[in-house]
Design goal:
The chain has about 475 residues and is mostly helical. The longest helix has about 140 residues. The radius of gyration is 57 Å and the shape is elongated.
């Protein structure tokens, strides 16, 4: 029994010992495994930590690079601003330097002027002292020579000084008047020359006849008609002489009235084109052309008014202006003359600061009386002024018209402008218009003094033999010409 117990104890002890060592072995194995795992975990953690550190370092570098770029951009803008500011400061510095230099020069000029003024003041002071001395000497001389008292000598001296001063004042006034007149003449000449250069209208010399081309020589017989009835009817309807001569393929219309002559020309051309030439047809066609021509005259007048900007002209004046398209004066077309005078008035008014529109209107209407001067008694300037007043023109325009040939004394600047512009426009084609006579004499037969006497003699004869508006220039030319030809 005891043996059994002992055996059990031994077995139990052996079992316990075996179990203990088994646990120890298992524990060691588990510890070894745990240490291996922990080592792996540590290595893995180390690798992750190193990767995270590298990632963090890379992100930090990128962030640092972005911050650096942002900083560089900001500093670059700031540097540009500073550079511009420095440039502006430099410019201001240069400007201040220039201003300082200018101030220095001005200061030097002022100092020099002060010095000159001081010198002049001293000179004047010396002259005053000299004058006082001369006055004193004059007083003493007067006392000695004339035995005058102090008060009498003073009065005499003052009288002499007053006379001297009056003489000097007169000389100064005369000099100022001459300088003013010379400056005014130069200015007026400049204005007139510039105005004449800017306005260069063409002039056409109209004759009293018009030539009409015929399609053939047989047309002359048809125009004359049986026993001359066609030509008589034509001349009666138009008021124009129809001349049929030996000149081949042409007939001539003769009349001093350009309106009638133009109507006759158009009517004759239409008759030849129509082919029906007989008294009834002639009268019918001439009346038709007259009506159409009146509309044409209105268009010519409206065109001239539009060109000069003189709007609001009465319809009757428009017709009269258009009528002047077919009238000449001294070889110059009157409507062309009216327009040029208007332009000249406007340009001179612009130079003088006056109303250009009003000035152009005065120039355009100044010769409107010529449209009816052959129908109404009196000077065309007065006739034109009455017409302008009748049809509602302003007092300035009416006065400029009536005064442009000085039938009435000019009272306004616009009247004077109209006179000047009319003279310029009318005198430029003077030789063609019959307003200038040139006499060329042989220098060996006429002396300079005789040439003067000859021009005066011609002037007297012209004034005594003919009547004319305005003036005619007489020029005697005495010169020697030597001509050679190079070949």
């Amino acid at each position: 029994m005891a043996w059994v117990i002992v055996s059990l104890v031994v077995i139990a002890g052996a079992a316990f010992g075996g179990g203990y060592w088994l646990r120890v072995l298992l524990s060691r194995k588990a510890l070894t495994s745990a240490e291996h795992k922990s080592k792996q975990l540590l290595e893995e953690a180390g690798r992750q930590a190193e990767a995270m550190a590298k990632q963090a370092q890379l992100e930090a570098k990128e962030h640092l690079h972005a911050l650096r770029q942002e900083f560089e951009e900001k500093t670059k803008d700031r540097r540009n601003e500073l550079s511009q500011l420095e440039k502006r400061l430099h410019q201001r510095e240069e400007l201040l330097d220039r201003k300082l230099d200018l101030l220095d020069r001005k200061e030097k000029d002022l100092i020099e002027r002060d010095r000159q003024l001081a010198g002049r003041e001293q000179t004047l002071k010396a002259k005053d002292e000299q004058l006082a001395q001369l006055i004193a000497e004059e007083k003493e001389k007067l006392k000695t020579i004339a035995g005058l008292g102090t008060e009498e000598a003073k009065q005499l001296l003052l009288f002499r000084l007053e006379q001297d001063c009056r003489s000097e004042v007169g000389m100064v006034v005369k000099r100022i008047e001459e300088e003013t007149k010379r400056d005014a003449q130069m200015l007026s000449r400049r204005i007139l020359l510039e105005t004449m250069q800017r306005c260069a209208a063409e002039f056409t010399v109209e004759s009293t006849t018009a030539v009409v081309q015929l399609p053939n020589e047989d047309m002359k017989g048809r125009i004359i008609g049986r026993e001359g009835r066609n030509i008589k009817a034509f001349e009666l309807a138009t008021g124009v002489d129809l001349i049929v001569d030996d000149t081949p393929d042409v007939v001539t219309l003769s009349s001093f009235d350009m309106v009638r002559r133009e109507i006759a020309r158009q009517a004759l051309e239409r008759l030849m084109s129509d082919g029906r030439i007989h008294p009834a047809r002639i009268e019918e066609l001439v009346e038709k052309v007259k009506k159409e021509f009146q509309q044409h005259l209105i268009q010519e007048g409206e065109k001239a008014i539009s060109e000069l900007g003189a709007h609001g002209v009465n319809h009757e004046l428009v017709k009269l202006i258009g009528r002047l398209r077919y009238r000449t004066s001294y070889g110059q077309n009157v409507l062309v003359h009216l327009k040029e005078t208007g332009y000249l008035c406007g340009m001179i008014a612009a130079e003088l600061g006056l109303d250009q529109r009003l000035a152009r209107r005065c120039g355009l209407l100044h010769d409107v009386g010529k449209a009816v001067s052959h129908e109404v008694e009196g000077p065309h300037a007065i006739i034109g002024a009455e017409l302008a007043k009748k049809y509602g023109e302003s007092p300035e325009v009416v006065h400029a018209i009536e005064a442009h040939h000085e039938d009435v004394a000019p009272q306004t600047l616009y009247a004077v402008l109209t006179i000047i512009a009319d003279s310029i426009s009318g005198s430029r084609p003077a030789i063609q218009a019959g307003r200038e006579v040139r006499v060329i004499v042989q220098p060996e037969r006429v002396t300079d003094l005789e040439a003067i006497a000859l021009s005066r003699e011609i002037k007297r004869k012209v004034e005594g033999s003919i009547e004319f508006p305005g003036q005619i220039k007489i020029t005697v030319i005495r010169e020697t010409r030597s001509i050679e030809y190079a070949r």
